[in-house]
Model the fold of this input.
Amino acid sequence: TQLLEQSPQFLSIQEGENLTVYCNSSSVFSSLQWYRQEPGEGPVLLVTVVTGGEVKKLKRLTFQFGDARKDSSLHITAAQTGDTGLYLCAGYSGGSNYKLTFGKGTLLTVNP
Amino acid sequence: ETGVTQSPTHLIKTRGQQVTLRCSSQSGHNTVSWYQQALGQGPQFIFQYYREEENGRGNFPPRFSGLQFPNYSSELNVNALELDDSALYLCASSSLGETQYFGPGTRLLVL
Done:
């Protein structure tokens, strides 16, 4: 069974601070996706990383895929209250059904 | 806005009852995947439908079943509901093998 472990589970910071959340696995994934989910809503895709060592930037968010394609990180610079939400990583290991394996998520609260 | 819709938004059932949840996929997509998200957990894959056929299933019992229609919309049926079935049920629409776009989910409470 492939597992994705996310850390930390909870994170509460002040507006303007920087933060990093992590997504780790003992398994190799063909690609890894990061989603953000707000209460009562479905996950919204932020980014997909495919190549080992890949770094993608989305405004103040920086995503990195580990060289061995087993881990990933999300760094947020100068967090804003609108960044509050549940951040989920999900891995795709290949195969025809494109099943996503999700981590439990990191619940981020950015305080004003 | 992903264009993926789900109904109903909320539902309350009692143990032993049956429930049907519905998902309309995004235009141009032929694949629907269903996930269960318990409180405080990440989504867990239930199954996927591609062109009206089941195309992969997660570790869920047979009382979880589904359908996909010619217009690629889909239903999730759960029989003999148990308390642990209380969760947010998400459907995701995609072309096969491509990025999945999630709907807002149906919140099911089993009493």
